[in-house]
């Protein structure tokens, strides 16, 4: 650790790794978390959608891919996963002998819910030539049934690398799947799941926002509907959204994803303006305040719950041995293809 209390984790070149630890210096709760972190030899991994206070105490903040990569190489004894359940499960699958805790065990995901393992197994049984590609937003049991995992940050690359003689089955996000098909030209059978938060964005609302901010670049997550993606200047994962906004000379950006990401954007690009796309029709509801999209699952986590899960080492992620073993294969395949 350097004198100004910042650290860089090896290999974490693109994401916020450790902001100056002002939070620990001034906030008693953050100070308590920092002391627990040292005592437990813990690492705090946080998704880009977490509330700002959590991002500020994390060792690493990033997208699902970056978080999986960090989990794969951590030397910590305890992983405190500030995100949703499937992300913490992925960290556990990569670290079966470490303790993985998450602040709120109910932090689920509508995509994960949409795809129960027994239903997927039944569909797989209808075609022995299926090669199953699962978006990381699914349960460990579903991962254990799949050939490879993807995130929004590497889905295109991984689908391009899929065996040419196989029939591709993509689960569980039909919008991400549709976008990847558009990018690669590779047909896929799509599971009919979606992110309840991202499908709330509508093209009519976005067109009005674009008219209001004509110079702004529009950045959209691929979980959004096609009608919304078609209005984008860039469609990408949350991590790539941050890089895009940092590197693009534009001064204003309309951000079409969960609003928690704005914290990092404002921190990393203080000279730029980020407009959180509203999820309601501005013209039909004049005077209403912007209700930017929030993922109710991501927002279950609070700084208090981070402290509590570190104190009690619970809730803890535990998975059956056979799931841990089988689910590791498609995740490792993803990590391997991602660095090629
Ligand atoms: P990213 O991997 O792009 O951060 O997306 C995760 C997610 O859950 C989006 O809703
Ligand atoms: Fe799941 Fe959507 Fe929340 Fe992401 S934003 S965790 S996809 S419900």
The rounded distance between the terminal residues' Cα atoms is 31 Å
From the 3D coordinates, which CATH architecture of the largest domain would you assign? 3-Layer(aba) Sandwich
The helix tally amounts to 16
Number of domains: 3
And the CATH topology of the largest domain?
Rossmann fold
- Largest sheet features: 4 strands, parallel
- How do the strands of the widest beta sheet line up side by side? 2-1-3-4
Count the E strands: 12
Radius of gyration over alpha carbons?
20 Å
Gross morphology is: globular
Structural commentary:
This protein is α/β, with parallel strands linked by helices and 340 residues long. It has three domains: 16-107 and 299-318, Rossmann fold; 111-190, Rossmann fold, CATH 3.40.50; 203-294, Rossmann fold (3-Layer(aba) Sandwich), CATH 3.40.50. It has helices spanning 22-26, 28-40, 52-57, 64-73, 85-94, 110-113, 117-124, 140-143, 155-160, 174-184, 203-212, 226-229, 238-247, 261-268, 303-312, 321-339, and strands at residues 42-47, 60-62, 78-82, 99-101, 130-135, 148-150, 167-171, 188-190, 217-220, 234-235, 252-256, 273-276. Residues 84, 109-111, 137, 195-198, 223, 258, 295, 297-298 line the site of iron/sulfur cluster.
């Amino acid at each position: 650790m350097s004198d100004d209390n910042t650290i860089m984790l090896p290999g974490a070149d693109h994401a916020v790794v450790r902001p100056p630890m002002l939070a620990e210096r001034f906030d008693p709760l953050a100070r308590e978390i920092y002391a627990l972190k040292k005592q437990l030899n813990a690492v705090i991994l946080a998704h880009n959608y977490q509330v700002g206070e959590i991002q500020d105490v994390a060792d690493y903040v990033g997208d699902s891919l970056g978080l999986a990569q960090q989990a794969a190489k951590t030397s910590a004894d305890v992983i405190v996963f500030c995100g949703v359940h499937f992300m913490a499960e992925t960290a556990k699958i990569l670290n079966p002998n470490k303790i993985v805790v998450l602040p709120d065990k109910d932090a689920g995901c509508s995509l994960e819910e949409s795809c129960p393992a027994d239903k997927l197994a039944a569909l797989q049984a209808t075609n022995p030539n299926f090669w199953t590609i699962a978006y990381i937003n699914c349960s460990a049991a579903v991962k254990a049934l799949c050939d490879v995992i993807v995130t929004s940050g590497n889905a295109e690359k991984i689908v391009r690398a899929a065996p040419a003689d196989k029939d591709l089955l993509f689960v569980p996000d039909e919008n991400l799947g549709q976008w990847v098909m558009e990018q690669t030209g590779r047909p896929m059978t799509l599971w009919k799941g979606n992110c309840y938060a991202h499908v709330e964005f509508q093209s009519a609302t976005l067109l009005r926002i674009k008219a209001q901010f004509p110079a702004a670049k529009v950045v959209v997550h691929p979980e959004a509907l096609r009608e919304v993606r078609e209005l984008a200047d860039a469609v990408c994962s949350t991590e790539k959204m941050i890089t895009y906004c940092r590197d693009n000379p534009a001064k204003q950006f309309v951000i079409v994803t969960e609003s928690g990401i704005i914290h990092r954007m404002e921190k990393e690009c203080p000279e730029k303006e980020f407009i959180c796309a509203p999820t309601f029709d501005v013209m039909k509801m004049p005077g209403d305040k912007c209700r930017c999209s929030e993922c109710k699952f991501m927002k279950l986590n609070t700084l208090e719950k981070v402290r509590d899960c570190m104190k009690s080492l619970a809730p803890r992620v535990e998975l059956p041995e056979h799931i841990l073993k089988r689910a590791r294969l498609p995740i490792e395949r993803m990590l391997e293809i991602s660095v090629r």
